[in-house]
Description:
By secondary structure, the protein is an alpha/beta fold. The chain contains six helices and six strands; from the N terminus they run βαβαβααβααββ. The chain has a domain at 29-99 and 113-118: 3-Layer(aba) Sandwich (Rossmann fold). Helix 5 (111-119) packs antiparallel against helix 6. The chain is globular. The mean pLDDT is 91.
Amino acid sequence: MLRLLILRxxxxxxxxxGQKDIDRxxxxxxxxxxxxIRKWISAKKLTPDQIYCSPAARTKATLEGIAKSFLQVPRxxxxxxxxxxxxxxxxxxxxxxxxxxxxxxxxxxxxxxxxANMLIEKTDANALSPISYTYPAGSLAIIDFDINHWxxxxxxxxxxxxxxxxxxxxxx
Length: 172
């Protein structure tokens, strides 16, 4: 059994005049939401062995904001293609991971939503609804696969354990 954690970066502000999108920072709400995400990680003992993270400022800040909640220090790689990439880049990164261990991806929408929607078995439409349509900032999907190696991961074979949203009662 292998576990994949897909975390969309916490909430961000709009780009300032002349600022590149990749340099956008977390806004006040995003910084506050990091405390919620840290509580999830601690309460559920979600400690990835490997983190693959987009190099954008907002994903790096999200990673930095949650790092102390892990029970052990994970390996971290920044994947350039995660910033503007497609689901295929995320899947290639997972398939190329040779160790049978827990992986966390920290990325962007719409890729996080598309990836989770593609990987999760389609038996529970209600559980998939927030993933399919919004995947709000700071949301975390916990997906288990009945496989021994990441290269075996296939579309529709993941079991959604939980989908955590920082503000579940807000409309997105």
